[in-house]
Amino acid sequence: MGTSKYNLEQLGWFNFEQLVRTLLRQVIGNGISTFSGSVDQGRDATFRGEASSFPSDADRWKGSWIFQVKHRAYSTRGANTVRKELKRTLPTEMVGIIRKHGHVCDNYIAITNCPLTAQDKDEIKQLIKLSAEDLTGSAVLGESDLQELLDCHPRVVSAFPQILGLSQLRELVEWGLHRRSIEYLLAAQSDIATFVRKGSSLPLTLAQNY
Questions:
Q1: pTM for this structure?
Q2: Taking a C-beta distance cutoff of 8 angstroms, is the pair 128, 91 a contact?
Q3: What local confidence, expressed as pLDDT, does residue 3 receive?
Q4: Distance (Å, rounded) from C-alpha 197 to C-alpha 202?
Q5: For residue 199, what are the contacts with CB-CB under 8 A and spacing of at least 6?
Q6: Is the peptide bond before 161 cis (omega within 30 degrees of 0)?
């Protein structure tokens, strides 16, 4: 599946849940409910309304949403084992979650840190569709999808530095120092302009030439 840019597995289920919720606020919107459920069967949350930018800015899903999050330690168990488990359990668990919340679900989003191929996602979506035919939209987000979202939202990355390697942490620190330096120079520029306008006895246009 390639080398992961962000180490989502080492977050553990709790911090992974917090990371996902922060990302969902960016692409779905505020109002995501608190996650509930069990670690083994996945944690779920709900939302009602129109997404701010999901699945894209041009095509924004709306309605009643259910999100199911599954964090798995796939490096010790093997990614193939976890993928097979997801295909076997997600559809049944989704039906139980929809019943638990007791409302029509328009959009169901399954989110996991496990690497998924395009075929894996298509198979899971098909199984979900067979289990809940009334769904308007369904999506399965795996490790690579979350990596892309994190690339688009660097502020989220900075809030979870534990997902970064040493080289990336160094880049983040340098980016922060660079940003603060620019902000300092802009502030200093403004202060200098104010000083010249208030402190110089020369006409403003003449003072700016000195």
A1: 0.76
A2: yes
A3: 61
A4: 9
A5: none
A6: no
The contacts found for 31-37 with CB under 8 angstroms, 24 or more apart, are 32/67, 35/69, 37/68, 37/97
Instruction: Name residue 121's amino acid.
Output: K
Strands 42-55 and 60-70, bridge-based pairing: antiparallel
Cα 44 to Cα 188: distance, rounded to the nearest angstrom: 48
In order of 170, 183, 192, 198, the CA distances from 202 in angstroms are 47, 29, 15, 10
Report pLDDT digits (tens) over 18-50: 999 999 999 999 999 988 887 776 789 999 999
Q: Residue length, the chain?
A: 210
Strands (E) across 40-125 are located at 42-55, 60-70, 107-112
Q: pLDDT tens digits for 72-111?
A: 999 999 999 999 999 999 988 998 888 888 878 999 999 9
Chain centroid to CA 15: how far? 12
Helix, strand and coil in the chain, % to nearest 5? 55, 20, 25
The domain spans of the chain are 9-164, 169-207
C-alpha to C-alpha distance for 135 and 24, rounded to whole angstroms: 20
Distance CA(148)–CA(165), nearest Å, equals 17
